[in-house]
Amino acid sequence: MLERKVKTVRALERGLDVLVEVQARRAVSLHELHQALKLPKATLLRMLLTLGRKGLIWQRLADGAYLPHLGPAARGTGSAVEHIAEIASPYMKALSTKVAWPSVLGVPRLDHMEILETNSPLFRLDSAILGPVGVKLSYIHTATGRAYLAACDEQEREAIIARLRPKDAAPGSEEDLRAILKETRERGYALREPLHPWPDRSKQLVLRDGRRSMAVAIMANGAPIATINLTWPAKRGTDEAVMHRHLEALQQTAQAIGLAVAAQSVSAPIAGNAA
Amino acid sequence: MLERKVKTVRALERGLDVLVEVQARRAVSLHELHQALKLPKATLLRMLLTLGRKGLIWQRLADGAYLPHLGPAARGTGSAVEHIAEIASPYMKALSTKVAWPSVLGVPRLDHMEILETNSPLFRLDSAILGPVGVKLSYIHTATGRAYLAACDEQEREAIIARLRPKDAAPGSEEDLRAILKETRERGYALREPLHPWPDRSKQLVLRDGRRSMAVAIMANGAPIATINLTWPAKRGTDEAVMHRHLEALQQTAQAIGLAVAAQSVSAPIAGNAA
DNA sequence: GTGCGCGTTGCATAAGGTGAAACACGCGGA
DNA sequence: TCCGCGTGTTTCACCTTATGCAACGCGCAC
């Protein structure tokens, strides 16, 4: 194997270098690869296309970064939860062709929702720029956060609310929050309205960004694992129309992603070892 | 990603096909790949060399089969124990250049030791053919088995002995076995002598194959994980010389493999997810 | 001995990988 | 608003280099 007389295949060799590099850094831009491997971008582009076609890497819509595909390998490391962005990405791309406004995929963290993916670069509009991957969204003041809180089970919801509750919470304010979440649950989708008094690092931002947003949870095996939203610029009187026109597509997309994630989460076989 | 204007890199594409195929089947010969992928063997050979050089696959000495390299992926699936053969293979190759006789790498199973790798194909001698991968070796009647039993901790040893004990075990025979193991432990290496009365599927085979064998355990982090032996044809009067000449090399190889395995078994980081 | 199967090597051919150069596009600054 | 830079994308002509036929070696079975 080591000392063969035959020559190696250069094209394969360099392509594998690219694959290894993408896997080493967890996300990488074309330019970074260009610098790291000293290969022309044109060449890299064709290699990346090839690797993508074979399912070894995928490209994030949010920023065009190339990410390694997590094979059946990384199962057990939190089931398929790590793949959500990869699985959701094509659905979000499809959604962008059906709906006029951009979406964001968010997953729950301790005290905020985190953006994993967005299709906003697919829209030309300046008003469509949604925060890059990694942006933290408020549980309280965003449709995305409320969609998750409304959908998760009571125990988790209580834990999150407890984390967010300010020391000087106004009397009755927590009941207001619960009422908002109850209404969200019954309605089937979340909005950033009505306003809630608890402070939050992003509260002011949300209040005055001149946008409106609706969100639904992505359910897999009965539990919410992420949320997907739709954001559009607030123009007087258009909100009801936008919501009415696109709600169904949003819900269908969320359901499709949930099913795809659930289908992936077949546990990998464990190789038994004797004792 | 999906609908690019650029062409894909064919050489890379086909090389990845080979990689995927090797990963799908866990072990595959050149000929099988040739049939499955319809590629000329010459081409496959160069691709396999390239994949090997990049550390994505490796070739087993025992039968020349190509096996996928188990990346940091499969950790948690029984730590590094699955890689032992891969790690040991180059050491066994090196050993074959220093010593005139072939070796076998064995790992413990419930009631036998199993051959994972052997360097015997590297020897020309007809007398050097050692069973292919998967062959089961007796715990009682082989040096390989005794080396493991002598090295493992008391609890495991008792469990194995209990499994092997015949219903009609002769009085005192179990004490004999323990004495053999005790002597093995103190001596530092195992032999297939002296004979022990307990029956075993391979007892007769071992008795009359006209060979002699010595074995030592491979220790990683204080516990035996495998054994490596040396087998040579029995010729009157040569045994002491062979053992004396090669014992040190065998022990050094075992130690080197053990250290390499221990170095690999750094646990992969677990991605934390919030609740 | 001999025939067959499989792995390996050599080599002529042209397929196709390559990278310079030009193009497209968005973003930030003036 | 316009310009310029940085990044991603496409094109294309050159010639490296991937390719697979053909021949060889070797061990194994009959």
Strand order of the largest sheet of chain A: 5-4-3-8-7-6
CATH fold-level assignment of the largest domain in chain A = Beta-Lactamase
CATH class of the largest domain in chain A: Alpha Beta
Percentage of residues in strands of chain A: 15-25%
**Can you tell me the overall shape of chain A?**
elongated
Helix/strand/pairing category of chain A? alpha+beta
Rounded to an integer in angstroms, the radius of gyration calculated over CA atoms of chain A is: 22 Å
Give me the count of strands of chain A: 8
Q: List the total number of helices of chain A.
A: 9
Count of discrete domains of chain A? 2
Q: What is the helical fraction of chain A, as a range of percent?
A: 40-55%
Query: Topology as H/E string of chain A?
Result: HHHEEHEEEHHHEHEEH
Oligomer: homodimer
Polypeptide structure, described:
The structure is a homodimer of 275-residue chains. With 275 residues, chain A is of the alpha+beta class. Chain A has 2 domains: 59 residues, Arc Repressor Mutant, subunit A; 189 residues, GAF domain (Beta-Lactamase). Chain A is built from 9 helices and 8 strands. Chain A has a 6-stranded antiparallel β-sheet, with helices on both faces. In chain A, β3 and β4 form a beta hairpin. In chain A, α4 packs antiparallel against α9 and α5 crosses α7. The first copy, chain A, is elongated. The two termini of chain A are 34 Å apart. The C terminus of chain A is likely disordered. At the A-B interface, α1 and α3 of A face α1 and α3 of B. The structure holds a DNA duplex (30 and 30 nucleotides).
Note the main attributes of this structure.
DNA-binding, alpha+beta, 275 residues, 6-stranded antiparallel beta sheet, Beta-Lactamase, homodimer, disordered C terminus, two-stranded antiparallel sheet, Arc Repressor Mutant, subunit A
